[in-house]
Amino acid sequence: MTIHSIGSKAAVRSAEARVAGYDWEMLAGELSNYGCAVTEKLLTPEECRQIAGLYAQEGHFRSHVHMARHGFGKGEYRYFRYPLPDLIGAFRGALYPRLAAVANDWNERMGIAQRYPAEHGAFLDQCHEQGQTRPTPLLLQYVPGDFNCLHQDLYGDLAFPLQVAILLSEPGKDFTGGEFVLTEQRPRMQSRAEVVPLRQGDAVAFAVHNRPVQGTKGSYRVNLRHGVSRLRSGMRHTVGIIFHDAK
Length: 247
Description:
- The chain is an alpha+beta fold.
- The protein contains six helices and 15 strands.
- Helices cover 28% and strands 32% of the residues.
- Pfam families: Oxygenase-NA (PF09859).
């Protein structure tokens, strides 16, 4: 299995079919207007349990991060190693082309020269040419009192401007608290917060760093950060799909 492998053929077909079933014109509008958009029930409950169950299996991961040691918040996460688990690799490849179209539109509106190829493998080639070869999809685990500070996942000179987080646990049953939060800072204005309600298997696509906003004199950039509020009870698992690789 090569570094560009995106999973078994069955996983790829399933991921592509599910992703194609959403209204991407509407989702692109949500992303452009609010900086985030939700695809409900992207994963089944059984798939969520299977992915969450990988957390204790160290062989799937290249590193283990305790947030408090780095000032990131409180909680922990593990970065997957290559080859990625089939389902995660398949959805990384299936979601990318839909989001690349949004990213290219945004960069054109913001006057940014960078354009993203239509297929994820070609984008990974660009990452690797710049020395960014380490996979970035990750599995996060929170217990009571844990939280994730507002941040941006950039990792290198070449960073894809959108990413996806999939909630693997069921709110109200597996945990309470732990809401996904997105903040947006516009020039000379107070920050705006967006709390995104998710159920088990739901995915939220969101802007990592900037998005364009139409002003009276054309489009301008706003700055975004994301995080997770304090977990009140239980345990919460999330898988993060980041599309660029890291140095």
